[in-house]
From TrEMBL:
Phylogenetic placement of the source organism: Bacteria, Pseudomonadati, Campylobacterota, Epsilonproteobacteria, Campylobacterales
Record membrane topology: Multi-pass membrane protein
Localisation: Membrane
Pfam families, A to Z: FTSW_RODA_SPOVE
Name this polypeptide is given: Probable peptidoglycan glycosyltransferase FtsW
InterPro entries assigned: FtsW/RodA
Catalytic reaction annotation: [GlcNAc-(1->4)-Mur2Ac(oyl-L-Ala-gamma-D-Glu-L-Lys-D-Ala-D-Ala)](n)-di-trans,octa-cis-undecaprenyl diphosphate + beta-D-GlcNAc-(1->4)-Mur2Ac(oyl-L-Ala-gamma-D-Glu-L-Lys-D-Ala-D-Ala)-di-trans,octa-cis-undecaprenyl diphosphate = [GlcNAc-(1->4)-Mur2Ac(oyl-L-Ala-gamma-D-Glu-L-Lys-D-Ala-D-Ala)](n+1)-di-trans,octa-cis-undecaprenyl diphosphate + di-trans,octa-cis-undecaprenyl diphosphate + H(+)
Domain of life (superkingdom): Bacteria
UniProt-listed Enzyme Commission number(s): 2.4.99.28
Keywords from the named record: Cell shape, Glycosyltransferase, Membrane, Peptidoglycan synthesis, Transferase, Transmembrane, Transmembrane helix
PANTHER family documented for this protein: CELL CYCLE PROTEIN, PEPTIDOGLYCAN GLYCOSYLTRANSFERASE FTSW-RELATED
Organism whose genome encodes this protein: Campylobacter ureolyticus ACS-301-V-Sch3b
Length: 387
């Protein structure tokens, strides 16, 4: 049987779009750090070619023979151990950016283990849920007993990624994927409510334990409070109003860049907000930069392609009779969906900015390789799906 060629071509096209905009949107960073003009383009092009080849290679493999080994033993166990070891590695091996030590230095390349760990973690959940959760109604306490080990495992994940690596955005993505997969695996409504309460409590504790996260929430709220408070009773609005919150200048520039693009955009390479007004525009704010240069219609095409990619992933999940493949494919689809939503909502001030890359589009070799490996695994599974 053949793998899903349409999924492969969509992913490859999105990679190509990301490569093009790595050249266009990285211009300020090139000038700031005195890089060669094609610094980001050459790196993204190289990783993009490797990623496309990796997707094609994985699509040719037999999932029954290779998928469990690759996802659990390499991505889950190996990356988990690597992230545990990172705090004890010398600074010459671990790169710290904005107070977060998430990257391991390699010759000419920095690697973030969490991008491959996510794939292994999702497969581990799919593999384990299939053995532990069968959709049959059980007593409430027995369901709690079944799910408690996952709470412990996810607690460790929160500690490593959210606390040690200071990457709360990835925790939000993984928590959302975990919840979606638990629902798909088949648990009672009481358990779903309990899980939501646990996530709310864990999120509250993570936010309040970090002054940086509290300041980010205040910054986000200061940008939307005037609009929200206008719909609330005056007494409640006065209590919620923050006078001294820092103005979210990044979000302001992001919204201005989107607005400046209009319907048809300024033209590729002709955006102005990337010229020092909007930092990290080729990474975290890539959608704002693309919107300014290709406009509403251009970004609409990209969004349609991205959701076409998600549709093919969820179709692969629904067409397979293997429960592990079903849960894994669904989990990967939700991982892409939540990453895209968190980024796009953040740059438009709907939610606080989380620093989550847009799959395939943001500059960065780790996320591109991780996204491509995930698609390669789905392509592998698609050969075992019903057409």
């Amino acid at each position: 049987m053949k793998s899903d060629k349409f999924l492969f071509f969509i992913a490859s096209f999105l990679i190509a779009v990301g490569i093009i905009f790595s050249l266009s949107l990285g211009v300020f960073s090139v000038l700031l750090y005195d890089y060669d003009n094609t610094h980001f383009f050459i790196r993204q092009l190289s990783i993009g070619i490797i990623s496309i080849f990796l997707m094609w290679t994985l699509s040719k493999l037999n999932p029954e023979k290779i998928l469990t080994f690759v996802c659990i033993y390499i991505f889950f166990l190996a990356m988990f151990c690597l992230m545990l070891a990172m705090p004890f590695m010398p600074s010459s091996l671990v790169r710290e950016v904005n107070g977060a030590a998430r990257w391991i230095k390699l010759p000419g390349f920095s690697f973030a283990p969490v991008e491959l760990f996510k794939i292994g973690f999702i497969y581990f959940l799919a593999w384990s849920f299939t053995r532990k959760i069968d959709g049959v109604k059980k007593p409430f306490l027995k369901e709690i007993g079944i799910l408690f080990p996952y709470v412990v495992v996810f607690g460790i994940v929160i500690l490593i990624i959210g606390s040690i690596q200071n990457d709360f955005g990835q925790v939000v993505v993984l928590a959302s994927v975990l919840f979606a997969m638990i629902v798909l695996a088949g648990v009672s409504r009481k358990i779903i409510g309990l899980i939501l309460s646990f996530f709310a409590l864990a999120g509250f504790l993570l936010i309040t334990s970090s002054q940086h996260r509290i300041s980010r929430i205040h910054s986000w709220w200061s940008g939307i409070q005037d609009v929200v408070i206008s719909f609330l009773p005056s007494e409640m609005g006065n209590k919620l109003y923050i006078d001294d919150a820092q103005t979210p200048y990044q979000i302001s520039h992001s919204l201005n860049a989107i607005n400046n693009g209009g319907f048809f955009g300024e033209g590729i390479g002709l955006g102005t907000f990337k010229l020092g007004f909007l930092s990290e525009v080729h990474t975290d704010f890539v959608l704002a930069g693309i919107s300014e240069e290709v406009g509403f219609f251009g970004i609409l095409i990209i969004v349609i392609l991205f959701y076409a990619l998600l549709l093919r992933i969820f179709q692969t999940a629904s067409n397979t009779s293997n429960q592990v493949y079903y849960l894994f494919s669904s989990g990967i689809g939700f991982m892409f969906l939540f990453s895209f939503m968190i980024n796009s909502y953040g740059i438009t001030s709907i939610t606080p900015v989380k620093g989550i890359a847009v799959p395939f589009l943001s500059y960065g070799g780790s996320q591109l390789l991780g996204s491509s490996v995930a698609i390669g695994c789905i392509l592998m599974i698609s050969k075992r799906s019903k057409n």
